[in-house]
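Hi R.,

Here's the chain you asked about this morning:
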Amino acid sequence: MSELSLCMAQLDFTVGALHNNTSLILKTVAEQSHEHDIIVFPELAITGYPPEDLLLRPDHQEAVDNAVEQISAAASDCVVIVGHPSKVGEQLFNVVSVLHRGECLLRYKKQRLPNTGVFDEQRYFVPGDEGQVFEWQGYRIGLMICEDLWHPEPLSRLADDQLDLVVSVNASPYEIDKHDQRLSVLRQRVAEHGFPIAYLNNCGGQDELIFDGHSMVMDREGRLIGELPHCETTLATLKLAGSQLKCEAFPPYAGEDTDLRLAHVYDALVLSVRDYVNKNGFKNVLLGLSGGIDSALTLAIAADALGADRVQAVMMPFKYTSNMSLEDAEQQAKTLNVKYDVVPIEPMFDAFMGQLGPFFEGTATDTTEENLQSRCRGVLLMALSNKTGALVLTTGNKSEVAVGYATLYGDMCGGFAPIKDVPKTLVYQLASYRNTRSECIPERVIERPPSAELAPDQVDSDSLPDYSDLDRILSLYVEQDWSPSEIIAAGFEDADVRRALKLVDINEYKRRQAAVGPKITARNFGRDRRYPITSHYRYELERQN
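And here is the predicted structure, written out as tokens:
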């Protein structure tokens, strides 16, 4: 049996960019077909993932069918395995087609359609009900699509076949520790049937989702013999010689025990910002740089994603802004070499207060005046955005988003929220990690107590539990659906739990109006967690307790 060479194309495909996606596939085929027998592309590569309601458009499917024909005609010297939607009568399937010399040799229909969390494939697709084996040059290759591997049944339908390899094409979104989950699933499938698996994943940002690549090959013994980079597009070669697998152009395997968690999170956020900005046609970004930890991390991510020449930081001090904040913001901007401006907001604030004075007469100063400071900053940033075309990045973290510790139409103003799903404690870890690459965030920013600086001597702990406790409470409630009594029983203060959970519930209306941001946790605010704004369930819980 001769050697079979398979190219794994871990590439970035943009939703709706059918022409560009097809061009990328055709370019890859033209460049790689003389060296490889088979070239494999990810799930729904032609349309990008997830195409959502674009799938309901008849003209969209016509364009997909035309792209399949072009790719098939181009596959003259090799076989191309590519994912796309396919309509049969009135039914739409998520398929992978095996194309060669103008023909579709085989078409496999995805059997398991995820419909939880960020997925809603059952809204669009009909599930397939049979396995498919592709034979080429004497090798028998079973085909799977993403979710199929997470269940035993699809691969079990091929259990009686003598497969040389299972090829799984995927659009599997990143979240913390997701790679370990994938490894566990692949090992389980290998243990059940003894088939080696080539797992090819999409790589790129799409709105809230990050596709981290991290494709891999596992042999018949469940050993990981090769993995592609995290959050980087690349091509690599897998060769089959009889029962032997050999990975070429794969980077050196880092090892599963290497602590890469923070690096993976940080690189995923960078990829998300880069793709959101570039794919939506923005040339530059701007953000409010306060001298605090959240904006400091956001600025570092933006500069790493886009380059310093595409980033503008604006410090907007008020009378409560400390000299430390002014100094640290300027130092970071200079270190990163981004455009930096200082625009005091006191004249704007005074003008608003002058107009509002008659309405506020006889009332005490409260959060209204604090929020007004934030809204002055929001107006300023959005005006700069309108004038220059730059995208405003918001700087709120998941802990603040959860409890509403942010001002609607103030610091929530913006088009993309890079750390929206990053808990505050992880913000600190990522800031320290980023400094290990090159020190750009002043150490005082990391060490000082967090403060919104909207009132004299204000610190976050005046209004919120300690972040180490708050983040664990929020994780149990938001990501794991624990009840208040269960969280309290886990050792947290009764008052802290009830206060935090009430804030989560009553601030859903704010989150519905917040900028989109990348998902990195098991459940983010957005596609993952869909709670009613008008809900009295918290009163039911209070009544029970």
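One quick note: The domain at 4-251 is CATH 3.60.110.10 (Nitrilase/N-carbamoyl-D-aminoacid amidohydrolase).

Cheers,
M.
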